[in-house]
Amino acid sequence: MSKHFFGDTAVLLGRSLRHITRSADTIITTAVMPIAMLLLFVYVFGGAIDTGSVPYVNYLLPGILLITVASGIAYTAFRLFMDMRSGIFERFQSMPTARSSVLWAHVLTSVVANSISLVVVVLVALLMGFRSGAGLPAWLSVAGILLLFTLALTWLAVIPGLVAKTADGASAFSYPLIFLPFLSSAFVPTATMPGPLRVFAEHQPVTSIVNAIRDLFTQQPVGAGLWTALAWCAGLLVVAYGLAMNTYRRKVS
Predict the structure, then answer these.
(1) What is the pLDDT of residue 128?
(2) Which residue ranges make up each domain of the chain?
(3) Can you give the pTM of this predicted structure?
(4) What DSSP assignment string belongs to 23-59?
(5) Where are the transmembrane segments (predicted)?
(6) Cα end-to-end distance, the chain, whole Å
């Protein structure tokens, strides 16, 4: 790692954040779809879904938070693609700049932008009746899970941002990630699903992460479920980071 890595990353992060502040509509757009889904499912479908004694908005929010992140990282891939097309990367390579700092600046920008969108979604959920008696440690645990999840998906977004041929192609990879929560415990209990689908839903990462966040919000014992969620997030982060850095080295070599 270059001795200039942290300074270079800070400078490039400032550049990316300035782009975000000049186009704040991207953050708003990122939050609009999850909020629309929150409103739709709570007020239209919520009465038909049995979640026991848990209000449906409380049951639904963890999955909506993951969809918010999956929606937001599409902009990371898009911004990275535009930088690749504009020749910014070649310009930075001709300067004494740490090579990976460019990618880290985009990743950290994604973390900041997605954090703002997540806060907006939680505030809307509170207006809709979401309540949690969870204490500060539980909220910090939820924030940590969402941070790991955001980092993992953002590094995954780096790959299409580097290799896509069109801007639409760079963004489109996020669509399956947005759809995945529908095949999990995010919207309905998995026990209501038919056999093969239930098996898939109960063993895919989104269900583990959603259940862990839901248990933290409702002050239920998390046990091994929390470690399973963290393992999914950390494992995906390690794999995505390795693939992204390998792709980047091939692109700029």
Answers:
(1) 95
(2) 5-252
(3) 0.89
(4) TTHHHHHHHHHHHHHHHHIIIIIGGGS--TTS-HHHH
(5) 27-47, 59-81, 102-130, 136-158, 170-188, 224-244
(6) 17
